[in-house]
Amino acid sequence: xxxxxLPDCSLKIKNEEGNEFVxxxxxxxxxxxxxxxxxxxxxxxxxxxxxxxxxALISLEFPLTYFKSGKRSDILLSDRSGSPFLLIECKAxxxxxxPETIHQISTYNKIIQAPYIAMTNGLKHFIWKFSGEEYQxxxxxxxxx
Length: 145
Description:
Largest sheet: 6 strands, mixed
Number of strands: 9
Distance between the termini: 35 Å
Number of helices: 2
Shape: globular
Strand order of the largest sheet: 4-5-6-7-8-9
Order of helices and strands: EEEHEEEHEEE
Mean pLDDT: 92
């Protein structure tokens, strides 16, 4: 897998019958190792080990419904009261982050209504604060109060 612009972390990877799996420390199980999952797992480790976000407040593949269509957000961090805090969309490193990804995460956030959103492909990361009807670009991830 590709070297990412995220801190190194030691991921548990296993190979079964020609398929690679990575141990997800949030879901506490092995999941199929895809290029997007590679980014998600590195980002989870960033959140827990470097941003000090509690693992217990992180949900992965959070289900949501949009126009009768079932979708799943990649990472949702809740605040200590259980309300959505930070919604993160992960893409594989080879996927260019652009208007389609921004549209996807902002659409998901219409349902979730987190005050912060972010997107990453493991190489580039973008963070915004939602206030009213506008998103304001941030340089750092928000502190969890």
